[in-house]
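User: My collaborator sent over this chain with a note saying "see what the structure looks like." That's all I know about it. Can you take a look?
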Amino acid sequence: MDPENIFPSFDIDVEGIITAIAENGYRKVLLQGPEGLKRGLPLLAEIIEKGTGARVLIDAEPCFGACDHAGERALAAGADALIHLGHSDIPSMDRNMPVPVHFFHAEMKVKWDMLHAGLKKIVETVSSKRIALFTTVQHISLLDQAKRFLEDHSATVLIGEPGGREAFPGQVLGCSFSAAEGLELENASLLFMGTGRFHPMGLSTSTGKEVHTLDPVTGAVGKITTMERERFLRKRFGSIQKARDLLDGGCMTGILIGSKPGQRRVELASDMADLLDVKGYDYRMIVMDSVAPMKLFTLGLDLVINTACPRIALDDSVSYVRQGIVMITPVELRMALDELPWSEYRFDEEW
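Assistant: Without extra context I'll predict from the sequence alone. Here is the result:
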């Protein structure tokens, strides 16, 4: 079986996986991937077994990122190592892993003519030819290609250095936009290459600037405008005001601690508890692996301060509102308690 046929939309370093297993002498490994790659895992396991002689187990649990690696399940299954597909390593993540974890990210295949057509539209529409480039790991190799194209069209390109949670320059995560820090963006246009609105909205909120968007697969271009960012902020300010009212009304409050390997912000949760203690509010500390509205509803919670994955509160808030739960971030709790002015709103990036 040709690996190209297993994941037709992605490039994955299958030879690198085989080499890592062979060089380390692993006899049993656990293979993990996100939902978009799961259908191909049985065939990939077959290729790996034939190439290494090692037994390959497949992890069937949902996977939401590198922060959600299955190292502990690998240990429980008697595996020598975990092979994690689809995401890049998080350098600042706890290195005290139960078994070695090898990360192999997956890059989406693109048609260069689509990408170039989209970049041409961007060059023609941006207000400044100083362009700061950002993307997710699924498109990370496109940054150099895009940089050359833009420079050939008289643009000056800025690519920021990674922070503690990113593996590559120019990379952004839903929980970290460090690549924008350290760049002089006052007279620059921002361009995010990728899919969805969450990452460019995070960039816009972090920088206070509009963000141009380019889908590298379709070539479609768009923009996170100031108006769209303000609509998002109004919704979050509404949640903050509801949280303030709930606290003053003596609601059942929970501080959520995520137990996934890269989401364990225990110290931050303790800081949130200290804030509530000082203000005289009651609360309970909640530990959870996969966070879901019904789990929190079952506990009778009205308000949840989320210290697990930031996207839970920001990108999936409607699911919790439907269960009568207001979920906010640590930044938003500080605002609800008047510890932080509303003008300093930002995405949750406290790690």
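A starting point for your reply to your collaborator: The mean pLDDT is 96.
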